[in-house]
Amino acid sequence: MRIIVQKFGGTSVAGELGWSSLAGKVQAALDEGLCPVVVVSAMGRCPAPYATDSLLSLITPYAECADVQERDMLMACGEIISTVVLSHYLRAQGINAKGFSGPQAGIFTDDNYSEAQITAVDPSRLLKALNAGLVPVVAGFQGLSSQQRVATLGRGGSDTTAVALGAALQAEKVEIYTDVDGIMTADPRCVGEAKVLDSLTYMEVGEMAREGARVLHPRAAVMAKTYNIPVVVRSTFSDHSGTLLVSDDNFAGEQSALKQPLAASHNSEIALADREGAVPLIDRVAGRGQVATGIVTVPGRCAINVDLAWADDYQEARMRVLESMASHMVSLDMIDVVGNHLYFLINQSDLVPAREYLRELGYGFTVCQNCAKVSVVGHNMRGVPGVMRRICRALASASVRLLYATDSHITISCVVPEEQMQLAARNLHAEFSLQDIR
Predict the structure, then answer these.
(1) pLDDT class for 438, splitting at 50, 70, 90?
(2) What predicted TM-score, i.e. pTM, was given to this entire model?
(3) CA-to-CA distance for 423 and 77, rounded, in angstroms?
């Protein structure tokens, strides 16, 4: 049995145009002799009535009475609605489909509600359906906790569902369908010369996702790498071949990646513990001359500089700031410590409470509003001298104000004024010749 997992995102299942295109992709797989398993997200995005955020808005007035387990029950409804509607639609198109919730599909999770991790998959019910000639339609983003309650997997969790099922079912590949032709060298709304990448490593796509690009959920990228699952990101609405994700240490062998066996079995319980944070450091990819692979842009940020010079112990003061932000659920990004100064980036929406907490602590601080994060991602930049120099040169040549920057193994992120985000992205895209990438 040649199994393929096809995951369709919210824009792909938002209306009849998407449903028709989805049915076409499923039928094409059947015509090739494949056995598709379809994974679906909730329909559309807020304010669409069945989008996850729209469902959550129903209990927003009662936030003080929130129960995380019940909240997950509500959040899971969006994908279940999609599953039922799409299975009915496929049957109306002559495709013998059958819907499954995440728990019904054999997906088991831990008890970390709203951010649950998949712990095991029992593929027996899906295999039984496939053997009966059915096309299973599975609700993404959810599974069954050890407390026998529905648990959701966090934003982008349907990607993780698809990859987990791909491993458990020994699928030939997992196709992630979205509203663009594949993963691009930059956001085309910022960089008109952005191109669709033919292939990308798991490590690169995971880093791009962590930096804010809506490409593939980081946990899904880690799982795909761990279980050696070929993944293709492509459009629901076109016939473009999309972007193939390949092993970090076998980039040169990408053409044979779809034929490599998966490290999974058909036992009733398959350990698929999430391995985020355990990605091994890998030597530079052979056969790739590009230092950078893509540019990721994230608007709507504020840069904060906390001056701890007057604190008796600025190391202890720094911890107080970090603990205050963490205890009040203010997410910090691009944290940088320089002497007695603490720099970090926050969402614009968190500015008012963050200011209040810093004033309570009594430390001086400055705020630069309306900022953006522009990140240069590339597997091959590790160990290459001069990458930061090129970034600074590209920004300076366009008179883009660089507020500060941080780096990781394969990413350099810059904070710039939001009004200059597109200009920065275009110049960095040109500096690293991403319009010529192959």
Answers:
(1) low
(2) 0.71
(3) 41
